[in-house]
Amino acid sequence: MLLPHVISEEIKIIAFVGLGGAIGSIARYLVQDYIGAHDFPWGTFVVNFIGSTLISIIFFSSFVAELSPYIKVFLFVGIFGGFTTMSSFSLDTVGLIIAERFGAAFFNIVLNGGLCVLGALAGRWFTMLLP
Asked: Which of these, 72, 62, 65, 60, lies nearest to 97 by C-alpha position?
């Protein structure tokens, strides 16, 4: 059995990301299950909106600087990454806007909102070619 002081920093970080990711994924499932099926993907929208709002509130709060690197990856990469990657995309875009990098913010929106959808369409097209 490995003692805690023998475990590498990278393994510790991966464990925190994995634990947070499990929690975020379960939370996503529960929210979408609660909302149920509709003619519009409301569950995905609600998860993306909640995740984008919460990640911004936490990230820009003054106490974040005091958090350990483990808690930061647990929250931002793990929980929010498992809950919705839209939250990371939104926070990245806000960061570019705050830095007054409006072109980069627009480019980020086009790439993530447009090209990723085209990638999904291409994936669908590719599966139609398979036997």
From this structure: 60
Exposure pattern of 29-53 as b/e (b: 16+ CB <10 Å)?
Answer: eebbeeeeeeeeeebeebbbebbbe
pLDDT digits (tens, 9 = 90+) for 40-87: 889 989 999 999 999 999 999 989 889 999 999 999 999 999 999 898
pTM, two decimals, is 0.80
All structural domains of the chain with their residue ranges:
9-100, 101-131
Q: What is the C-alpha to C-alpha distance for residues 48 and 75, in angstroms, rounded to an integer? A: 16
Q: Which amino acid is at 125?
A: W
Is the dihedral angle over the CA atoms 74, 115, 128, 42 positive or is it negative? positive
Tokens of 112: 């993530």
